[in-house]
Amino acid sequence: MSDFPEKAADKTNAVAVVVIGLATTAVLWAFVVYLQSYFENTQGEIAAKRASKGRSAMVRDLKAEQRADLSKTAYADASKGTLKRLNVETAKSLVVRDAKTGGSLIPSLGDLNVPTVPAAAGRPADDATIEPPAAPVAPPAVPTAVPTAVPTEGADAPPADAPAPAAAPAPAAVPAPAQ
Fold it and tell me: Are 68 and 60 in contact (CB under 8 A)?
C-alpha cells in the first residue's frame, strides 16, 4: 500500500474547544461594549459640531449682545425720559397692569369696542339687543251688521229702507273618501 505510516484516530479535546469558545465570546462582548461607549460619547460632540457648522463668531457675539439688550432698560433722552428700550420683565408687568385696568393693550388701536367678526346675513348684529316680545294684540271685533254699499255716481242705488241682503250659507261638510 503506501509507504506512509498509518494515521492515528482523531481524538476531540472537548475542554480545549469549550475554552476557546468562551474566550472568543468574552473578547467579542468586550469589543461590542467598547464600541457602544465610544459612539455614545462622540455622538454629543458630533451633534454639537453639526449644529454650530456655519455659525461664525460674529453671529454668536450678535446673539449674545441681543440677549443682553433684552435685560436692559435704555433711554433715548434721559433728561426727557424718552424710552428707547424696556426690560422684558418690566414690560411683562406693565402689560399685566394695563390688562387689569381694562384698557387697550395696543394704544394706537384705542379701545377695543369694535366687533372682530362682522355681522353676516342670517345672523344678528354683534351689538343687537333682545327686546321683550310685544303684548298680544286682541283679534278685531266681528261686525254684527253688514255694511251698506255706497252707491257710485249714476248707479241705481237700493232704497234706504230696503232690507240688507242675506249672508251666504256656509258650505256643507264633504265626507272623506273611504280607503
Answer: no
